[in-house]
Design brief:
The chain is α/β, with parallel strands linked by helices and 167 residues long. 31% of the residues lie in helices and 19% in strands.
């Protein structure tokens, strides 16, 4: 089970809504390669081309507010994002992320710990995020085993498929 994530940090602010993550005009797209081209195109225009697998998105308050559509976490996942860490999440975005297999971690004051380009390390089962560029760390409650199992499986649907296939 992969519980350690490390990568470059991208920082966004408070109240980032699902339309800022993937605009409504792209909701007919289901191909991850196409979604990737448009992720955060108005918020961080260079993100879709410059982000690398394993990178970490750090946000402020109420990240993912807006609609309940799964396109928002799916678009972030299409980039290969290692995790989204925020001061707080809109509940439906948080649940959609976990269900799709994208780690979403709520850590109070995390936004203040990072700047764009910092390097971070997150340990999901031990409950910490480290800013390796500044030698600072914040703790959070370790993710419970059932959430880690969903993430490790690649999402809730894949976890259920594995369980059904196992005699």
């Amino acid at each position: 089970m992969k519980t350690l994530i490390s990568g470059k940090v991208w920082v966004v602010g408070d109240q980032v809504d699902t339309d800022q993550l993937i605009a409504g005009k792209y909701l007919t797209i289901i191909d991850p390669k196409e979604l990737r081209k448009h992720v955060m195109e108005d918020l961080v225009p260079e993100f879709s081309k410059a982000a690398r697998p394993g990178d970490i998105l750090v946000a402020g308050e109420n990240f993912g507010c807006g609609s309940s559509r799964e396109h928002a976490p799916a678009a972030l996942q299409a980039v290969g994002l290692g995790a989204v860490v925020a001061n707080s999440f809109a509940r439906i975005f948080y649940r959609n992320s976990i269900n799709l297999g994208l780690p979403a971690i709520e850590v109070s004051s995390v936004r203040e710990l990072f700047s764009d380009g910092d390097q971070a390390e997150i340990h999901l089962s031990e409950g910490y995020i480290r800013n390796l560029s500044r030698s600072k760390e914040l703790r959070f409650p370790p993710l419970p085993s059932h959430i880690l199992e969903i993430l490790d499986s690649g999402g809730l649907v894949e976890k259920v498929r594995r369980e059904i296939a196992t005699p």
